[in-house]
Specification:
The chain has a domain at 25-89: 30s Ribosomal Protein S18 (Irregular). The protein is mainly α. It has 5 helices and no strands. One of its GO terms (cellular component) is cytosolic small ribosomal subunit.
Length: 108
C-alpha cells in the first residue's frame, strides 16, 4: 500500500506544537480589576521582576499589553525613587575570581 504524502502545512503544524505551545495566561491585573499599576506598590512590582531586578517579559508575566506598559513605567519610576533596586547584587557562590588587570589592583 502506498504512503500518504504529507503536505507542507501539516509539517509546519507539527513543528509549532512544541513544549511552549498551549493556552496563554490571562492578565493577572485584569483579573484583579487593577485599572492602573502604581509605582508605590512594591510587592506587586516585585512579582513581575526577576531576582536580578530585570522586568520580566509579557510571555513570562502573562500581562496584557496595556498593563505590561504600565508595569514598565511604574518599575522605572520606582527605581528612580529607590523603592526598587536597579540591579540586585549577584550571589558570589560558585563564581570564579575576575581575571585581568583588576586582580592586581590591591597590590601596591
Amino acid at each position: 500500500m502506498a504512503k500518504k504524502k504529507e503536505t507542507n502545512s501539516a509539517r509546519r503544524k507539527d513543528k509549532k506544537a512544541g513544549p511552549g505551545t498551549g493556552r496563554r495566561k490571562s492578565c493577572a491585573c485584569c483579573k484583579d480589576k487593577i485599572v492602573h499599576i502604581d509605582y508605590k506598590d512594591v510587592p506587586l512590582l516585585r512579582r513581575f521582576t526577576s531576582e536580578r531586578g530585570k522586568i520580566r517579559s509579557r510571555g513570562m508575566t502573562g500581562l496584557c499589553r496595556r498593563h505590561q506598559t504600565q508595569l514598565a513605567e511604574a518599575v522605572k519610576r520606582s527605581r528612580e525613587l529607590a523603592l526598587v533596586p536597579y540591579a540586585a547584587e549577584p550571589a558570589n557562590e560558585g563564581t570564579r575570581p575576575r581575571r585581568g588587570r583588576d586582580r592586581d589592583r590591591d597590590r601596591d
